[in-house]
Amino acid sequence: MNSKLIGLAIVSMLAFGSGAKAETIKVGMGAFPAPPFFAPDASGNFSGWEVDILKAICADQKLDCEITGVSWDGLIPALTAGQIDMIVSSLSITERRMQIIDFSDKYYNAPAAIVATKGSEIEATPEGLAGKTVGVQVASVHEAYAQKYFTESALRPYKSFDEIIQDLVAGRIDATLVELPVVEEFLKSSSGDCCEIEGNVAPDVAIFGPGIGAGLRKGDTALKAKINDGIRNILANGTYDAISANYFTSSIYGD
Predict the structure, then answer these.
(1) Of 98, 24, 16, 19, whose CA–CA distance to 68 is shortest?
(2) Is the backbone peptide bond immediately before 203 cis, with ω within 30 degrees of 0?
(3) pLDDT tens for residues 17-52?
(4) Which residues contact 25 (CB under 8 A, 6 or more apart)?
(5) DSSP summary character for residue 72
(6) Which of 8-17, 111-120, 172-181 is least confident?
(7) pLDDT at 10
(8) Segments forming the whole domain that contains residue 158
(9) pTM to 2 decimal places
(10) Strand 175-179 vs strand 133-137: parallel, antiparallel, or unpaired?
(11) Residue 117 and residue 94: Cα distance in Å, rounded?
């Protein structure tokens, strides 16, 4: 049995192995495509690595997790307003966000990379991007990083990575800053023939934080404990690696 079938079998057993009534949790996820992590189809159904990991965690903890698509900049307001119970949407654990919401333990960590059109000879440094127009996703850690370091660049905010890529392909921006696995997935597509990775940016833990976690309301300690237990369990029993093997050639959990 190949790794993909093993991963699907494990998730299926976890999801349907118990007849106990599950607690319903409303999960907010970005209402835009960000493969390989998540992407909604025309009916609003989500698929991707982050979706499979969420299903495994929720099955492990006997939670009935329902995904709702939310705009990127609306995720935290929806959580604090009680419209959703948790955010699972490649949300970096940062000190700034922790002033408003809480986080689970990290469930992955990935570097940020500069992407530009082929032959542009742009370097992934503040100096290399001076005078260039750089697209960034609004309210993201990448926007915060660009605002701090790319002071000689013209920053252009976008609602989603999809919109950034459209303008990059059309030549309306010179480069973008994005998570490395997201851009690697894009480069595999037919549209990705236009572009190349120019390199990873220098890390800044104060901005990027220790990794990606599930966003939770302040004081929701019971749900936080369950999500943390689920993350630890799927890491320990091989489910995490089996799912990841379907999407990545190496671990993205990080140190």
Answers:
(1) 24
(2) no
(3) 445 567 899 999 999 999 999 999 999 999 999 999
(4) 58, 63, 64, 65, 66, 85, 86, 223
(5) G
(6) 8-17
(7) 44
(8) 112-207
(9) 0.84
(10) parallel
(11) 30
252, part of any domain: no
- In this structure, the answer to whether residues 89 and 133 fall within a common structural domain is no
Give domain status of residue 250, yes or no.
Answer: no
How many domains are there within the chain?
2
Instruction: Quote the pLDDT of residue 73.
Output: 94
Give the pLDDT score at 15.
43
Residue 182 lies in a domain: yes
Conformational region of residue 82, where left means phi above 0, alpha means psi within -120 to 50, and beta covers everything else: left
Q: Within this chain, do residues 172 and 218 fall inside the same structural domain, yes or no?
A: no
Domain containing 83 — which CATH number? 3.40.190.10
Residue 187: exposed, middle, or buried by beta-carbon count in 10 A (0-12, 13-18, 19+)? middle
Give the span between the Cα atoms of 136 and 145, in whole angstroms.
10
From residue 213, alpha-carbon distances to 98, 137, 159, 216, 234 in Å are 11, 18, 21, 9, 15
Contact 132, 154 (CB under 8 A): yes
Per residue in 196-220, pLDDT (tens digit) is: 999 999 999 999 999 999 999 999 9
Dihedral angle, C-alpha 193, 194, 200, 206, nearest 10 ° = -120
Q: Are strands 195-200 and 63-70 parallel, antiparallel or unpaired?
A: unpaired
State whether 23 and 62 are in the same domain.
yes
Asked whether residue 150 falls in the same domain as residue 163, the answer is yes
Is residue 249 situated within a structural domain?
no
